[in-house]
Specification:
Layout (H helix, E strand, L loop, with lengths): L10 E6 L3 E10 L2 E11 L5 E2 L2 E2 L2 H15 L9 E6 L5 E8 L4 H15 L7 E14 L5 E11 H14 L2 E7 H11 L9 E7 L4 E7 L2 E8 L3 H12 L3 H6 L11 H5 L1 H32 L6 E5 L8 H9 L3 E3 L22 H7 L42 H73 L1 H13 L5 E9 L2 E8 L2 H12 L4 E11 L7 E9 L4 H4 L4 E3 L1
Length: 575
Amino acid sequence: MFGFGKRKGPSFALDVNSDSITLVQLEKTKAGIELARFAVQPTPPNAIREGLIADPIAVGQVVLELMNQAGIPQTGPAPILNLAVPAQASVIRLMPVPTGMPPEELADVVTQEAMNHVPFPIADANLDWSLMPATERTDADGVRRVDVILAAIQRSIVETYWRMCDCAGVKLGRIDISSLSVIRSLALAGYLGSSGHLSMIVNIRHDATDINVVRSAMPLFGRSIVLGVETLTEAISRNLSISFDQALEILPDIRLYHTDAKMTADILLGQAGQISRTVFGDITDELARSLEFYKSQVGDIKIDHILLTGPGCMVPQLDEFIHAKLNVKTIVADPMRDILLEKQPIAERLKPILAALIGTAIETQWSPSFTVDLDLNKEGRLPLLFEATSTQRVAFTQEETKWFRPALLAGALLLVLVLAVSGYFAYIDLPSKQKQLQSVKTETDKTKKDLKTLTELKTTNRDLTAKKDVLDSIIRKNTHASKVLEAVRANTPEGIQLSSIIFDKGKVKLGGVARDFDDVSSFAVSLNKNPIVKNALVQDAGRRDKDSEVIDFDIEFTPAADDIAVANTPSASVR
């Protein structure tokens, strides 16, 4: 009743990209942290777009195969799957706040900051934030401040990962950000040094490259550029007229610098190396721009080293290439150098590629230093307001139990009863109700039709009455109206062209066009001189548009006392 005795399922980390889907489980033992399970499968075609899951059902089936491959038991509590989303799929902000701020006040400040910077409604976002103690400092104004890192992601993206987990029969656990996961894995491996050590971490992924400037495992600056392994592979495929898969296969054989005769003689690899130097040159230029921008914000600083991770590290000599370009010590990082691999040996060239995955699998308490620990799924599954699509749930197959057959028999009897009740309603009760409903519908349609006819008659009658009143007033008072029209005609100057004369409730309104504003003013003055015109005023005058030479105007006046009768008609107009 109170949840005593409930067991939590085992936790796994999942990395999903356009090339492969990888599953990892780490365990803390007396000997240290060891790789307990490892499995990898190719990604189904078109299942990943821009680093995000586009086909959760297909990916869920692959995850199910990975768990079977890794030997995860199909009994017991459902496994928990932790994963990281690409940095460009989320919004990340650093904001300084005064130290010692109460948690409630700090939460309000962070929420307000999210409302100002997140480019989608907060109601449709998953948020999380964390204080970064290593950034505490005294600003120029003498106030002690510390940075807060804020992250947000659209809830619809999180729902896609929930659907994938539904199809695999697992629970969705922590959702991290890939660039922060890489920092966590390198901190555990001891690459990030002391508090004064400044590192640039470059994670060259398939669809993009994450760039982060880090001190004491705290991200001080970060950005993502849309250049990655896919950019390189597509360039090689296009320029060498080979398939994308063939181009991907030759990446580990490419040399950015030709060091032996065999490589120089291989024309295909030589051309691929030239293309690779161009693409990696663009990435290196972005690293330099990022560093210059960061220096413009904080002043002149020195980067101690550049740490390379991600699938881009499968190309040999990349560290030498970047070092030669930027003159900064560059290292291909091994996030697994302090992890025990006796049970699951991993090839050396694969280790840098798994940095984000290892960081996602690490528990917070394992890290020797404080790292940012965000969870964009900490509130669990929330309903989507604008999506009623139910998700597919696939459970593990379990062995038949002793109560299965009696339960099956009871279910069959219940099904017969339900079918009998359904037959009664379908063949006896429902036809009677449908007949009554049809009769009511017929009466309703007839009433609606009669009401529509009555409304049309009332509208026609009202229009005819109004026309009759106007005609009667014109016939009875045509002498007075003619005086007004004669006065208007006699006093209309040459530059004026009238388009309408309206008699309305004691007023006469004139509308038309003129060559210039003087003609409009002269027309009003001329009308005022006529004995049957009183208070002729220009109500409006202006050009039709910026370049027009024609002026639209409206003039309104009151007829003299003996012409009030015509002006007091309900409404009369001449156009």
